[in-house]
Amino acid sequence: MILFFYIFYKDIESNCYSSDGKTLIQVTDPSPHLRISASCEVINDSCFSFLNSLATFTFADTPNLTTIAKLSFSECVNLTIINLTMCSKLKIIEACAFYGCEKVSQILLPD
Q1: What is the mean pLDDT of residues 85-98?
Q2: What is the pLDDT of residue 6?
Q3: Could you say which of 57, 67, 83, 97 has the lowest number of CB atoms within 10 Å?
Q4: CB–CB of 58/85 below 8 Å?
Q5: Residue 63, pLDDT score
Q6: Could you tell me if residue 85 is left (phi over 0), alpha (psi between -120 and 50 degrees) or otherwise beta?
Q7: Which residue has the higher pLDDT, 6 or 60?
Q8: How many CB atoms lie within 10 A of CB 108?
Q9: Complete DSSP assignment for 51-90
């Protein structure tokens, strides 16, 4: 028997982004699975910090992400996987971006 699990990702609300949609400023949504907009270029300092409900995140098709700022996901204690393979424009992951994410079992980077 093969079991398939489908994860429903909730889009992060537009009020969490800068007015031009290019910077994700602060997320407090308690959903465990969140989707970041394709127009997002920067995940701000401490954007998801201490968001204990976050288990996984993904990106809308063809993401423009270039930078994950310092402490962006710090202390997201239930985050299990970091999949950045879709982020072909990613150039910078600043210090301690994933500090304290103790349950992370995989980190997948773009080619």
Answers
A1: 98
A2: 79
A3: 83
A4: no
A5: 98
A6: alpha
A7: 60
A8: 11
A9: -TT--EEEE-SS----EE-TTTTTT-TT--EEE-TT-TT-
